């Protein structure tokens, strides 16, 4: 591909090729120097993906073992994680499949009742955006998801993350056309940034760049996983002496909702709270802060 082809393929015509720290960015809301975003992934697969191969020569291929993992997350995991957040008075963002609202609406209602942000993760974790052949197919799946989530929660959904997260060339246009405020599809920057899609703006709050999902920590074991999370936090916190930093940890309810992994989250929150200048924010607070400051800066420049 020639250079102009890269620009369109990478969507640098929408996303900045070089996200930079704005001159105005000296602190997070409330004067914090370190922003911690906790993302809870409340997913549902219509056809559960096997965690390990089915037996050789299996005639019945539906994997009830994989189904059980997802059922555990919806039946027990989400509730245990919400209790952990309550103990620390921390608000998080719960990114949920539309199917969750159909099958387990009480869990979606509880997320909002406890004051957490609810965002959409598409309709079905089994159907990632790249499988959709047309923009309309992808849009219909997202609309179906937000409709179900809004009916269950009685509140508007303004945040989005693709399954994967692997968006398509159509995803950004769909998100701005539907009026989303933020996307967590991109793991490409230390700081948020504004994406301008044909004059409509959406904030990239970033996924785990930096730092981790629980999928990364589970193979290490609980003690080593917690140490890895703390060490990565310490590195970002040290850098926050120079300029504001953010730290993202994403937890799947069927993984971090287990007693051991939920204890890891509990201990990490306690550890982070022990550091001066650290605050926890849901994604919408980060996005609104960024939009407001960018708008204010634009008004100043226009004077």
**Total beta strand runs:** 10
Mean pLDDT: 94
Domain count: the total is: 1
Shape: globular
Descriptive keywords:
10 strands; 15% strand; alpha/beta; TIM Barrel; six-stranded parallel sheet; four-stranded mixed sheet
List the helices and strands and how they pair.
Elements lengths: L2 H7 L24 E9 L21 H25 L4 E4 L1 H6 L1 H9 L3 E4 L14 H19 L5 E2 L10 H7 L4 E2 L9 E5 L2 E5 L6 E3 H4 L4 H18 L5 E8 L6 H15 L4 E3 L2 H20 L1
Parallel strand pairs: 1-2, 1-9, 1-10, 2-3, 4-5, 5-7, 8-9
Antiparallel strand pairs: 6-7
Write a structural description.
- By secondary structure, the protein is of the alpha/beta class.
- The protein is built from 10 helices and 10 strands.
- Helix 2 (64-88) packs parallel to helix 9 (259-273) and helix 8 packs parallel to helix 9 (259-273).
- The longest helix is centred in the first third of the chain and has 25 residues, at 64-88.
- It is globular, with a radius of gyration of 19 Å.
- The mean pLDDT is 94.
């Amino acid at each position: 591909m020639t250079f102009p082809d890269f620009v369109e393929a990478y969507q640098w015509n929408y996303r900045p090729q070089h996200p930079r720290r704005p001159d105005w960015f000296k602190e997070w809301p409330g004067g914090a120097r370190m922003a911690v975003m906790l993302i809870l992934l409340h997913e549902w697969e219509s056809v559960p993906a096997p965690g390990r191969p089915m037996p050789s020569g299996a005639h019945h291929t539906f994997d009830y073992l994989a189904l059980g993992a997802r059922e555990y997350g919806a039946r027990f995991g989400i509730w245990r994680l919400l209790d952990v957040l309550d103990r620390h008075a921390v608000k998080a963002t719960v990114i949920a499949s539309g199917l969750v609202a159909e099958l387990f609406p009480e869990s979606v209602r509880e997320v909002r009742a406890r004051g957490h942000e609810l965002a959409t993760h598409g309709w079905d974790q089994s159907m990632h955006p790249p499988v959709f052949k047309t923009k309309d197919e992808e849009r219909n799946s997202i609309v179906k998801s937000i409709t179900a989530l809004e009916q269950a929660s009685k509140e508007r959904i303004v945040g989005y993350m693709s399954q994967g997260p692997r968006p398509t060339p159509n995803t950004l246009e769909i998100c701005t056309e539907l009026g989303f405020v933020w996307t967590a599809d991109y793991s490409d920057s230390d700081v948020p940034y504004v994406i301008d899609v044909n004059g409509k703006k959406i904030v990239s709050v970033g996924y785990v760049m930096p730092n981790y999902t629980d999928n990364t920590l589970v193979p290490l074991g609980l003690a080593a996983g917690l140490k890895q999370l703390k060490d990565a936090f310490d590195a970002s916190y040290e850098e926050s002496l120079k300029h504001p930093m953010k730290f993202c940890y994403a937890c799947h309810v069927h993984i971090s909702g287990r007693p051991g992994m939920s204890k890891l989250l509990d201990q990490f929150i306690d550890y982070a709270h022990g550091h001066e200048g650290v605050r926890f924010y849901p994604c919408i607070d980060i996005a609104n802060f960024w939009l407001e400051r960018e708008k204010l800066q634009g008004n100043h420049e226009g004077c």
